[in-house]
Write a structure and sequence with these properties.
Layout: H1 4-16, E1 26-28, E2 35-40, E3 43-49, H2 62-75, H3 83-86, H4 90-103, E4 107-111, H5 114-127, E5 133-137, H6 142-151, E6 154-158, H7 163-173, E7 179-184, H8 196-206, E8 208-213, H9 228-231, E9 240-244, E10 254-258, H10 260-269, H11 271-274, H12 281-296, H13 299-317, E11 330-333, H14 337-351, E12 353-354, E13 357-358, E14 369-372, H15 380-397, H16 403-408
Parallel strand pairs: 3-12, 5-6, 5-7, 7-8, 8-9
Antiparallel strand pairs: 1-2, 2-3, 4-10, 9-10, 11-14, 13-14
Length: 409
Amino acid sequence: MDYQAYFRLAIEALEAERRYRVFADLERIAGRFPNAHWHSPDGPRDVVIWCSNDYLGMGQHPAVIAAMVEAATHMGTGAGGTRNISGTNHPLVELEHELADLHGKEAALVFTSGYVSNEAGIATIARLIPGCLIFSDALNHNSMIAGVRLSGCEKRIFRHNDVGHLEELLIAAGPDRPKLIVFESVYSMDGDVAPVRAICDLAERYGAMTYLDEVHAVGMYGERGGGIAEREDVMARVDVVEGTLAKAFGCLGGYITGPADLIDAVRSYAPGFIFTTALPPAICAAASAAIRHLKTSSWERTRHQQNVGRTKAVLSAAGLPVMPSSTHIVPLRVGDPDKCKKASDLLLGEHGIYIQPINYPTVPRGSERLRITPTPYHDAALIDLLARALVEVWSQLGLPVQKSAIAAE
């Protein structure tokens, strides 16, 4: 039997649907971000990265790098195993204290990734509540969906950001049923924001717990970078805040924060925590340095928002189909998987601009897009170059532009 044929067929199916993913071989350069070396098939080339989730460039911040180097020099590279076997390295203890303080919670628990923190956190919390009914936003991240499924609990899906629909479902559940609402603050593909305050109102009115994914908001919003909940002054009303260390904090790992008993229960029951090697000391030290810096520095957030605003304005003025977004996510609609991939290839090959295409299943079919994420370091000159390159690519592929821009020419 040719077992490999099954895998070839699976790959061929992705290629036929224009969903096969090709990864660019990139080498970031500390001190020159967002510039990078692309190890192309024809040799190294300089490119500009326009789709990194290192939103604030903290992965190259001198204080973050110094903290990582110092910790690695003093404590070595690895964690030595799971925390149950090898104990907890001290930088990890300090990191959890920083995270609990960031979100105003009693305790925090760090995982190896944001995916694992959602999958293990949601599943364990719901499973430990007898008869728990989960209410999940229709556009929640795959990691949250995985956590809901892994819990084995009954679920209800409410229409995206629709508090009216959520309230109908909460009422139908009855007052005595334990309930958990899981949702995100910033949805990363559309860049829209959840009505966090209104959802907290419903949770309090109908006796539900709240679990808020702030992965694309921590470090980015709020006076100290605590996320949308901090910006909206509802942090104390959210039961569990989940986040990542791999985006605005420029490192690696995920976490949950909340009441001490809840965090201790997840620590004690979640297989995704118990049986996984802990984050190394150097990564923990670097993440703590990034968090401490962003708690007091507003320069990165201010400059970032300025560059995001300018990017949206320049691309819109050029007639490019910028999708509405109130956050730092700048989605550019293409609407066709083949052309989306071709647009990405042309930008990289002819213009030295790296933007990965976003196709199904990350977004629904027919809403394929380029997802642009400006940083504090994408200055006016880079933004203008991006606009010119995109206009040329749009013309090459015969993609539609905004009529208002055509009339203005």
